């Protein structure tokens, strides 16, 4: 990989990291300055991400904007960055969502009005600094082409997320502040432990990869480029059992991060106890690192093992789709409902990845982007609603559309995008995943379609119970509609969902060439369509 004259990818990641340090250093008395600084830095990062997108040539080399420098030379570790179309799409999604997350959480870390000695201190600067630090680590993860470099940031992002969940959790807890603090602590620790266990297993696999390359190449390496070149030249051939064990180590960590059933149980707790913006950060940004890594590292490094594990992974994905949707239907908590819906959606993404077709993997990549947009729209509006009422329980609402029609309307559009209504962006990605799956695994495609029906059930029930009906609660009668800041957060997301639902070509043009490279890694081609035999005319 050739070095670029300007380290654009490094700059895109370093800017939010420096912004995090600067935001944290703002004096406590000037918390509004910290907010504005974080927002400006996030917009600057978005500008750099737009530069990355414009500089990327879909018809060019697989990895572009590359950077390669020696780092820990004695152990074969290099600072290597590069993006394909999938990486570009994920960096753009991350940089796009962070300004909305910051604007939506403008008052989430303000000091509490309670002046009792046991009040919870909420340092505003720390909240926004942690968000920017997560952004920096996620961007490096999407750009890293050195496995060890990826691993470092894959694990490091757990620390700021732990503090965002445990230290800046949702104030709207039905059992009171004391019980809420316990639940937040439990959710943060559970999130950390699950992901640390997956990370430790992955570390063993990363070390195993180094040992294998050192044994066969004479010097260990973590560079995906060097590994791919050695495999193409016939210099690197992993034993079947070794490759499968290494694959399982990587896949376990990514399946926890995604998350995939039965490794999903940390997500409802984490999203339920977080503020709405942090919940969006978890499921729309951080969790996407897991599914992205399945495409880049599982399929790229272990093609034979990926094919070997495909039947079992497809079965797990189908369970995630149905199980997540069924539990979403039964939820009484708005944010936990969205969390279980996301588990169902991640099942669709994993299904598309391991369908091993261009439609499936292209749809899975689009699904990652569109799920991020739709979940952000729905969850942020839900957060605005919860902050007004002070409750996450669905039963505490009803008739909201009569007193806050704009809030109800945006909530409906976010919900319709979540159930993949035609005309909105997620429909395209879900359709491609199902078509790609059905062309190779018809039975799995049929089962997955049940998830579409169940999605309609939980979204429409949620809207019916919260937004329709009579206004029979005094708290609802006084509910204000969306404020200008809140509308400025939600309106662009809805506009993007509609625009990309009608015209997804700009994104598919970037993604499709990268998907073709990924399929070539696993030596798969799209199955030939089964055409009915036509009798010759007599």
From TrEMBL:
InterPro entries given in the database record: NADH_Q_OxRdtase_chainM/4, NADH_UbQ_OxRdtase, ND/Mrp_TM
Superkingdom of source: Bacteria
Signal peptide (from-to): none
Stored Pfam families: Proton_antipo_M (PF00361)
Annotated compartments: Endomembrane system; Membrane
Domain NADH:quinone oxidoreductase/Mrp antiporter transmembrane residues, every copy: 144-454
GO MF assignments: oxidoreductase activity
Chief localization: membrane
Membrane-spanning intervals of the chain: 6-29, 36-56, 86-106, 127-144, 150-170, 191-212, 245-266, 278-302, 308-330, 337-358, 364-386, 406-429, 441-463, 484-503
Membrane-related topology note: Multi-pass membrane protein
Enzyme Commission number(s): 1.6.5.11
NCBIfam families associated with the record: NDH_I_M, PRK05846.1-4
Similarity annotation: Belongs to the complex I subunit 4 family.
Protein name stated in the entry: NADH-quinone oxidoreductase subunit M
Organism of derivation: Streptomyces durbertensis
């Amino acid at each position: 990989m050739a070095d670029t004259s300007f380290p654009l990818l490094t700059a895109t990641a370093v800017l939010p990291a420096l912004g995090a340090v600067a935001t944290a250093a703002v004096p406590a008395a000037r918390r509004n300055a910290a907010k504005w600084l974080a927002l400006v830095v996030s917009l600057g990062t978005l500008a750099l991400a737009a530069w990355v997108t414009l500089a990327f040539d879909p018809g060019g080399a697989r990895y572009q904007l590359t950077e390669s420098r020696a780092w820990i030379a004695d152990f074969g570790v290099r600072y290597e960055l590069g993006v394909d179309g999938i990486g570009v799409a994920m960096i753009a999604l991350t940089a796009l969502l962070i300004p909305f997350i910051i604007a939506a959480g403008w008052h989430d870390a303000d000091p509490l009005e309670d002046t009792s000695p046991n009040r919870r201190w909420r340092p505003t600067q720390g909240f926004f600094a942690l968000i920017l630090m997560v952004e920096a680590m996620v961007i490096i993860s999407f750009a890293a082409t050195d496995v060890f470099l990826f691993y470092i940031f894959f694990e490091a992002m757990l620390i700021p997320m732990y503090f965002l969940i445990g230290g800046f959790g949702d104030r709207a807890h039905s059992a009171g502040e004391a019980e809420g603090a316990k639940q937040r602590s439990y959710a943060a620790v559970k999130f950390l432990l699950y992901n640390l266990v997956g990370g430790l297993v992955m570390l063993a696999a990363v070390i195993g990869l180094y040992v294998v390359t050192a044994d066969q190449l004479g010097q260990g390496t973590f560079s995906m480029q060097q590994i791919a070149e050695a495999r193409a030249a016939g210099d690197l051939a992993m034993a079947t059992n070794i490759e499968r064990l290494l694959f399982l180590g990587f896949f376990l960590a990514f399946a926890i991060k995604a998350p995939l059933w039965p490794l999903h149980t940390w997500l409802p707790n984490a999203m339920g106890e977080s503020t709405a913006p942090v919940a969006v950060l978890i499921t729309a940004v951080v969790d996407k690192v897991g599914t992205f890594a399945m495409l880049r590292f599982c399929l790229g490094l272990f093609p034979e093992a990926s094919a070997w594990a495909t039947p079992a992974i497809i079965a797990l994905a189908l369970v995630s789709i149905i199980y997540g949707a069924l539990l979403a239907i039964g939820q009484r908590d708005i944010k936990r409902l969205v969390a279980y819906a996301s588990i169902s959606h991640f099942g669709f993404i994993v299904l598309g990845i391991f369908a091993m077709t261009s439609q499936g993997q292209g749809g899975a990549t689009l699904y990652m982007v569109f799920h991020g947009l739709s979940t952000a729209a729905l969850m942020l509006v839900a957060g605005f609603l919860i902050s007004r009422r002070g409750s996450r329980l669905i039963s505490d609402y009803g008739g909201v559309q009569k007193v806050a029609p704009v809030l109800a309307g945006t909530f409906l559009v976010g919900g319709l995008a979540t159930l993949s209504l035609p005309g909105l962006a997620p429909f395209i990605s879900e359709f491609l995943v199902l078509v790609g799956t059905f062309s190779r695994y018809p039975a799995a495609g049929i089962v997955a379609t049940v998830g579409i029906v169940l999605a309609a059930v939980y979204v429409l029930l949620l809207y019916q119970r919260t937004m329709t009906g009579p206004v029979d609660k005094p708290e609802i009668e006084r509910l204000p509609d969306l404020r200008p800041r809140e509308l400025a957060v939600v309106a662009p997301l809805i506009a993007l969902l509609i625009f990309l639902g009608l015209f997804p070509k700009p994104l598919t043009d970037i993604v499709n060439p990268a998907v073709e490279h990924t399929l070539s890694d696993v030596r798969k081609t799209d199955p030939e369509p089964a055409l009915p035999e036509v009798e010759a005319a007599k």
